[in-house]
What we know:
It is built from 19 helices and 18 strands. It is α/β, with parallel strands linked by helices. It folds into two domains: 13-33 and 109-283 and 497-519, Rossmann fold (3-Layer(aba) Sandwich), CATH 3.40.50; 286-491, Glycogen Phosphorylase B (Rossmann fold, 3-Layer(aba) Sandwich), CATH 3.40.50.2000. The longest helix has 27 residues, at 144-170. The two termini are 27 Å apart. The protein binds GDP-alpha-D-glucose. GDP-alpha-D-glucose (GDG) binds at residues 54-57, 59-60, 207-208, 282, 317, 319, 354, 395-397, 400, 417-422, 425.
Amino acid sequence: MLDPSLLRVVEAQAEHLQRISAELFADHTLILASNRGPVEYTMTDRGLEGHRGSGGLVTAMSAIGKYVSPRWVAAAMSEGDRVMAQTAGETALHWEHEASQFDLRFITIEPEMYQAYYGTVSNPLLWFLQHYMWDAPRTPLIDETIWAAWRDYKAVNRLFAAAIAEEVEHAPQAPIVMLHDYHLYYVPAYLRQHELPADSCITFFLHIPWPGPDYWSLLPQEMRLEVLESLTKCDILGFQTHRYLRNFLNTCLAYLPDAQIDYNQNRIVCQGHTTHLKAYPISIDVQSVIDLGNSLDVRSFRQRLRPYTGDQTIVRIDRVEPSKNIVRGFKAFELLLERYPEYIGRVKFMAILVPSRLGVEEYQRYLEEIMVVTGWINTRYGNEEWQPVELIVGENYPRAIAAMQMYDVLLVNPLIDGMNLVAKEGATVNERGGVLVLSEGAGVAEQLSDHALIISPTDIVGTMEALRQALEMSPTERHERALALREEVIREDLSMWLAHQFRDVQRLLEQRASATRKALPLVEQETSA
Ligand code: GDG
């Protein structure tokens, strides 16, 4: 149960967002676009059934539908989505889920083209690049296949832009188009080729890191340049952290010769167009996470997970994703048991892993590596009655929330991560005064580092020491830190993330409408980091 004063903070933020949304969308229509939509349809014996799409982006974005009823343009990902798209034809599909509602428009893409756009360019090429995951002496190998896939990536972006342009045409009011993530880098450029009303606005929010300019040199000049030229056609470009924003400015300085870059105002003028840059650290929908935490479903999962806990329990929850650095986390735990055998039989490591991108070879191999390392630890330190690592692989959000309530230590050690919502959800729902062991590479460290134990993700000795420090911490310090973390998260609820963006759009539109037409900076560049 949340402290009533914190609950009031959450309510006040929601009311603030409600007010801003009511003002802005009184005369504007919101159009969202992302690769994955808020719902995925599967064919079952009972017919087509919709369930909420997975992943951090959808988790966060689904909350928008509580305040506004946007159009959401997304790719049809499953066979069920394609059937729904065909049945719906020109009509948008209405989707409602837990007080959120959307009008969804699926884009149907030829499977081969989708595979090139998603399975070759978005993941791995861009994802690996933006998480510093390439093995530079060997990969990426930009051969004919990659070039062909890049052309398909552009073609899919063109389809997105065309679908959005149609939505714009039919929108009852001036459109605000909010684009999301690295699958859609070319959409701003293609969208600008369509006629847009004068008081429309295009924003782009990047959920993943933006690396420094040197690393972008792994991408051929032509690709790099086109991506930058397209992104600088947005009106507002949002990043998770100030660091990624600075990296973007530096990348433009290095590779966009004609751009004027204003580091003070975080603004870029390129080919006569001004783009405002800002850090909007994404957050969680505190109220709905708390409500879910109090649900019967989660309570029943807590009972079921109990046998997987020890006297003290280290928990991690991640997609099976190499950038989440899961294997090193286990190696640090192994070192802990080796150095401090008194933990054997007492401390368990419960890892909840959600399968991800198993069509990409590296991800399959990574899952195998996880199996090997955990199998080894359990063989070495476990016996028939007790095993140190409990590995739970599968997708189940309520179960993940139940595990977050139960940790004594939450390990979040990604090599690099746009934000990391698990750290914020954990801080909100945990019931044991749990300690957060957090990588300096997670975007969330810009906000939570004062109250977490910060580690370098490659350092398994340092990680092991932080795990030990967390396990040995006095109850008073644990609870003080846990409370401070929770307050930090709650002060910047997801509604504030949205409110900051809506307010900046509002300001921009007001500036444009004003007689001076002087390009002022967007307000409050400092944000909350
Ligand atoms: C990307 C960026 C950024 C957990 N188990 C299940 C499940 N979850 C939820 C978690 C959390 C979300 O999925 C994962 O979000 P993360 O932020 O941890 O990571 P990514 O998926 O990599 O998200 C990331 C985020 O976008 C938002 O901008 O923070 O940096 O990489 O909420 O609790 N969800 C479902 N089933 C599960 O079993 N559906």
